[in-house]
């Protein structure tokens, strides 16, 4: 209980909360005179078109005299609004319709292009390093005689006799098993 | 210190012993309190009624309507036409036409796993749409992208 009593009843806003408040005010400056209409996704004054959150926190367009006039007409009978008026109202509140949000934007073309560019660039870098950076291969790899001697040595010491190299060698006739 | 511990041990052990003894006699054990959580499962009707009541509140404001719609669209369901009608009427009270179109679009997106749902919903809410003068997204031409680029597969056709 003593622990609980350390916390004052009425706390003054912490520095963190003051910063949060300042951030909110800064955001409020950034949105112009757009109406803040709701919670949106996380309570920030942001406009996002997202299929799972149909209603963003602010309207898409700033309030202009034209849209104010249209809003006044909106207060009357909606049957008197033309389709153009309805579209204007929609576009004042929202940027993209659902079908536009989900329309193909052709971005896959540039993504594919850049991925292929990166792959070919890495091949060129490999070739350049092979030519100018790496030392030549050791002769244990390039010299055929040494490699054959190494294989003979592996056969002699019976490397992997169950199902590997030595299992394939016929020790009685000194040749590979048929 | 030791005496304290032994006393505590005695009480603890005695408690378990008496419980064990009581368990030998089932007749007395039936009265024991069971510590179980009991979650009340909301039926579909109750859910619908809750949201109809939420959207039908006369003093609902734009914040609450939007929050209710966002929540509904976030759920794994297509709202019942009753709820949609209540929400559309709430939009009418708030004089916000754009919300209706947006909500119907979202419902269409939600209902697209089963092609029968959206026509059914439209059919059910048709009287309300006519009464309030609301156009469906199809009537406004929003079922197809209005301002988007043409699909690359259709460019040359």
UniProtKB/TrEMBL annotation, chain A:
Q: Which UniProt keywords apply?
A: Membrane, Mitochondrion, Mitochondrion inner membrane, Oxidoreductase, Transit peptide, Transmembrane, Transmembrane helix
Q: Which Gene3D superfamilies match?
A: Cytochrome c oxidase subunit IV
Locate the transmembrane regions by residue number: 111-128
Q: Which SUPFAM superfamilies match?
A: Mitochondrial cytochrome c oxidase subunit IV
Among the Pfam families in the record, one is: COX4
Q: What does this protein do?
A: Component of the cytochrome c oxidase, the last enzyme in the mitochondrial electron transport chain which drives oxidative phosphorylation.
Q: What is this protein called?
A: Cytochrome c oxidase subunit 4
**From which organism does this entry originate?**
Orchesella dallaii
Automatic annotation (TrEMBL), chain B:
Record's superkingdom?
A: Eukaryota
Annotated membrane topology: Peripheral membrane protein
Q: Which Gene3D superfamilies match?
A: Cytochrome c oxidase, subunit Va/VI (1.25.40.40)
> Which UniProt keywords are listed?
Heme, Iron, Membrane, Metal-binding, Mitochondrion, Mitochondrion inner membrane, Transit peptide
Q: Where in the cell is it found?
A: Mitochondrion inner membrane
Q: What is its main location?
A: mitochondrion
Q: Which Pfam families match?
A: COX5A (PF02284)
Q: In which pathway does it act?
A: Energy metabolism; oxidative phosphorylation
Q: What does this protein do?
A: Component of the cytochrome c oxidase, the last enzyme in the mitochondrial electron transport chain which drives oxidative phosphorylation. The respiratory chain contains 3 multisubunit complexes succinate dehydrogenase (complex II, CII), ubiquinol-cytochrome c oxidoreductase (cytochrome b-c1 complex, complex III, CIII) and cytochrome c oxidase (complex IV, CIV), that cooperate to transfer electrons derived from NADH and succinate to molecular oxygen, creating an electrochemical gradient over the inner membrane that drives transmembrane transport and the ATP synthase.
Q: Which family does it belong to?
A: Belongs to the cytochrome c oxidase subunit 5A family.
Report quaternary structure and partners: Component of the cytochrome c oxidase (complex IV, CIV), a multisubunit enzyme composed of a catalytic core of 3 subunits and several supernumerary subunits. The complex exists as a monomer or a dimer and forms supercomplexes (SCs) in the inner mitochondrial membrane with ubiquinol-cytochrome c oxidoreductase (cytochrome b-c1 complex, complex III, CIII).
- The protein's name in its UniProt record: Cytochrome c oxidase subunit 5A, mitochondrial
Lineage per the UniProt record: Eukaryota, Metazoa, Ecdysozoa, Arthropoda, Hexapoda
């Amino acid at each position: 209980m003593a622990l609980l009593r350390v916390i004052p009843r009425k706390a003054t806003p912490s520095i963190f909360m003051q910063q949060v408040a300042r951030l909110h005010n800064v955001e409020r400056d950034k949105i112009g005179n757009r109406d803040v209409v709701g919670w949106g996704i996380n309570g920030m004054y942001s406009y996002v078109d997202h299929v799972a959150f149909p209603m963003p926190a602010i309207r898409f367009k700033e309030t202009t005299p034209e849209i104010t006039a249209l809003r006044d007409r909106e207060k009357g009978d909606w049957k008197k609004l033309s389709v153009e008026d309805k579209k204007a109202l929609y576009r004042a509140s929202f940027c993209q319709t659902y079908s536009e949000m989900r329309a193909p934007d052709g971005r896959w073309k540039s993504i594919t292009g850049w991925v292929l560019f990166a792959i070919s660039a890495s091949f060129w870098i490999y070739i350049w390093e092979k030519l100018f950076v790496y030392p030549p291969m050791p002769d244990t790899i390039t010299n055929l005689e040494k490699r054959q001697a190494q294989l003979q040595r592996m056969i002699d010491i019976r490397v992997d006799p169950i199902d590997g190299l030595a299992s394939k060698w016929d020790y009685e006739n000194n040749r590979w098993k048929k | 210190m030791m005496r304290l511990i032994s006393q505590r041990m005695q009480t603890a052990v005695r408690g378990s012993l008496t419980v064990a003894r009581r368990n030998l006699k089932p007749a007395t054990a039936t009265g024991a309190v069971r510590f179980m959580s009991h979650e009340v499962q909301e039926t579909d009707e109750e859910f619908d009624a809750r949201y109809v009541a939420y959207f039908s509140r006369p003093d609902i404001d734009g914040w609450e309507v939007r929050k209710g719609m966002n929540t509904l669209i976030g759920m794994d369901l297509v709202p019942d036409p009753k709820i949609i009608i209540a929400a559309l009427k709430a939009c009418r009270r708030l004089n916000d036409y754009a919300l209706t179109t947006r909500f119907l679009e979202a419902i269409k997106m939600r209902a697209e796993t089963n092609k029968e749902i959206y026509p059914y919903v439209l059919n059910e809410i048709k009287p309300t749409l006519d009464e309030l003068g609301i156009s469906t997204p199809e009537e406004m031409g929003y079922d197809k992208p209005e301002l988007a680029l043409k699909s690359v597969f259709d460019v040359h056709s």
